[in-house]
Amino acid sequence: MTQENQTANIALSLRNLHKAFGEKVVHRGVSFDLREGEILGLFGGSGTGKSVILRSIIGLEHPDEGEIIFEGRNLIPLTERELFSVRTRISYVFQNGALFDSLTVEENLAYPLREHALMTESEIHERVDEMLEMIDMKGANHLLPSELSGGMQKRAGFARSVILQPKVVLFDEPTAGLDPVNTGRLLQNILSFKRRGMTGIFVTHDIPAAFEVCDRIAILNQGKIELVMSVDEMKKSNDALVKSFTTGAHIR
Ligand SMILES: Nc1ncnc2c1ncn2[C@@H]1O[C@H](COP(=O)(O)OP(=O)(O)O)[C@@H](O)[C@H]1O
Ligand SMILES: [Mg+2]
């Protein structure tokens, strides 16, 4: 494979990111590549800087050093205006779904389409219906977020995050607070988008969920990506750090 072909398969590349908040150093040279079409799990103890990595990718945090390469350019120096279009191609799934309370499900899902896409009202309505069907919420158009279960809120939040068909989706602990049934439903939704080519980073403490949807897992430890391995390799690994995650021992 030529060098060119190899880079063509990388959706996003983080190179040597450093970040400190005052005296507190969070990232000490974070580097990894996200391959096109994969879901990369990101494990790390609480407060190790997983959310800061995701927030840096969409420009909500500014690394002190390093590069985040997407579509051939470094995102770190981009202005808010330039980031506006990047955020249609890299989306962030917030922990609680982050729906607008006063808007119906349909208005919530239509919001990114109205902001970023040139679509007629009937096209918007059709696209919303199609998404609701994909997340098993057909007919929920006119409900308010307060009328939805926690699981439905998260699935609707996910649907809103992917409605513009972004190239990369960033998940920050998407299954936190969900019971096993709702976790299963959300994971099935994520997998059906993955089959259609979605690429993602999946930050989680939920090891079974990560094993179900991820291709590879990266472990963030003491400010760096300590290792990246496939889910199959991880299941067989005897590495002490890996085992501390797979056995749940790191969550104290
Ligand atoms: N805006 C901020 N200001 C100061 N400290 C922050 C800020 N955001 C995150 N931190 C600190 O950075 C560290 C990493 O945070 P975070 O990425 O949220 O961890 P996690 O791995 O649990 O997602 C934590 O110690 C947190 O307190
Ligand atoms: Mg976090």
Explain how this protein is built.
By secondary structure, this protein is an alpha/beta fold. It has a single domain (3-246), classed as Rossmann fold, CATH 3.40.50. The protein has 10 helices and 10 strands. The protein has helices at 3-8, 50-57, 80-89, 105-116, 121-134, 150-162, 180-195, 207-213, 231-236, 240-246; strands at 10-21, 24-35, 39-43, 65-70, 73-74, 90-93, 168-172, 199-203, 216-221, 224-230. It has a 6-stranded mixed beta sheet with strand order 6-7-8-3-9-10, with helices on both faces. The chain is globular. The model has no long low-confidence stretch (mean pLDDT 92). The structure holds adenosine-5'-diphosphate and magnesium ion. The site of magnesium ion (MG) has 3 residues, from helix 2.
Shape: globular
| CATH first level | Alpha Beta
Low-confidence stretches: none
Question: What is the total domain count?
Answer: 1
Adjacency order of strands in the biggest sheet: 6-7-8-3-9-10
Largest sheet: 6 strands, mixed
Tally of strands: 10
Supply Rg: 18 Å
CATH superfamily: P-loop containing nucleotide triphosphate hydrolases
Instruction: Give the count of helical stretches.
Output: 10
Helix content: 25-40%
Question: In the CATH classification, which architecture applies?
Answer: 3-Layer(aba) Sandwich
Structural class: alpha/beta
Element order, helices and strands? HEEEHEEHEHHHEHEHEEHH
What compounds are bound to the protein? adenosine-5'-diphosphate, magnesium ion
Tell me the span between the first and last alpha carbons: 45 Å
Proportion in β-strands: 25-35%
Defining traits:
10 helices, four-stranded antiparallel β-sheet, binds adenosine-5'-diphosphate, six-stranded mixed β-sheet, 252 residues, alpha/beta, 10 strands
